[in-house]
Amino acid sequence: xxxxxxxxxxxxxxxxxxxxxxxxxxxxxxxxxxxxxxxxxxxxxxxxxxxxxxxxxxxxxxxxxxxxxxxxxxxxxxxxxxxxxxxxxxxxxxxxxxxxxxxxxxxxxxxxxxxxxxxxxxxxxxxxxxxxxxxxxxxxxxxxxxxxxxxxxxxxxxxxxxxxxxxxxxxxxxxxxxxxxxxxxxxxxxxxxxxxxxxxxxxxxxxxxxxxxxxxxxxxxxxxxxxxxxxxxxxxxxxxxxxxxxxxxxxxxxxxxxxxxxxxxxxxxxxxxxxxxxxxxxxxxxxxxxxxxxxxxxxxxxxxxxxxxxxxxxxxxxxxxxxxxxxxxxxxxxxxxxxxxxxxxxxxxxxxxxxxxxxxxxxxxxxxxxxxxxxxxxxxxxxxxxxxxxxxxxxxxxxxxxxxxxxxxxxxxxxxxxxxxxxxxxxxxxxxxxxxxxxxxxxxxxxxxxxxxxxxxxxxxxxxxxxxxxxxxxxxxxxxxxxxxxxxxxxxxxxxxxxxxxxxxxxxxxxxxxxxxxxxxxxxxxxxxxxxxxxxxxxxxxxxxxxxxxxxx
Length: 553
Known about the structure:
Layout: H1 2-19, H2 24-29, H3 31-34, H4 47-52, E1 57-63, H5 67-78, E2 83-87, E3 102-103, H6 107-116, H7 119-138, E4 143-152, H8 158-171, E5 181-184, H9 185-191, E6 202-211, H10 213-226, E7 230-233, E8 235-243, E9 246-254, E10 260-270, H11 276-283, E11 294-301, E12 309-312, E13 321-326, E14 329-333, E15 337-338, H12 346-355, E16 371-379, E17 397-401, E18 406-411, H13 417-431, H14 456-464, H15 468-478, H16 482-489, H17 504-513, H18 519-526, H19 529-532, H20 534-539, H21 541-552
């Protein structure tokens, strides 16, 4: 068995190294165009303007405005195709705003790969680690690295976990954040003062990436719009139109006005995540389902803020759990329950809160009483016939083409959105008979990134004479576009809530620049206010309603 594992690793090493060789020519080919700063004066067309300019036909129509749909949008636009994206609700209103906020290869998938000698799981890790580096480079103000401690209970298992963490490093050669290391318990107590005093012999520290998912999703949309695409939220596709058995376009309804539109398309991409089967069966009623959705619940805790995360390697039901710093709060998650559960259930909250008591001292651990918010997201898992349950299913993505030409892309995870989009758009181009063009999204930084640096918050605080928490929030949320928000404030930085850094000027900015159509869009997907403190966000609704009323009339 050991020889087999060694051969398995050697073969993979060659594949990984070959896959990572990028020529200087490729890296520089698109640098000039996409490295140029987007002027602060640029403003996206309004939703009404986009609707008035709907074309009779497009090269590609994308249905779904989550991570993969937004990724397909930017990919197709930067290849030079004419593109229309349609989302029935708000962008990132589904699974894509309800993640663990990790950009990762998936260290738990690596363990499965080694135990089962599974190439599927291993290549999923390799792809994730490669995409992780690209992801971090595309939006430096919305992403960051995070150290995570994997506690080890028995000294006998230290070599096992050391080898796993080092292999995670090895697989990320050329894409690494920082090397993993072993820490004795005394050092862990220094870094995590609240860690339990018993049951831990030491731990491995490894590094992964973290993101602000819904805002990154919105910036993919905004960036694609800047480069010439059209993306509309609150537009529901009612029908796939066909001629001689082939899809020729779509009919959709603007749900705000009820007005109906019909457009032709050379190719249509189904990027509707866990709802993919609905559109597939609209296309072909007798098609078998391909989705095996699983629900993941997370909570935000206040009161145990620290710069390091901790992973529970094996909960009572055999899964893993993360406790991660996220801005000035802590994310705890996740569950893995087969099926659709749009709301977090009480038993899910209790499970999450209680499982971490094994690792954190009770007098320090905030527990269920300090839950600031909770969310439930449905993972769009593609059917894995070989898996015994959703926890062991391979999180690989699938690109499928129906007999009528519907291109469905689903499965995967946030980290791999760009690679999924690349494959889906290339497939859609072939289906539609479009000219083949190279994917360039490895080089396309999102709006807000071009002139951003880590001192931006300090610069804003100094120039505007405002509190550091507001300045840092604006820099972290908007990147170099924070200066545009400052222009909206015009010297008046009115907080929406005295305990939080959100200001009224950014509400107006997101309405004009980020497709915000209602209060929920702002609170839940452009600001994360509702995630950090759902009670304060609810209390802010009357004041926000006045702002929206004035803006929309």
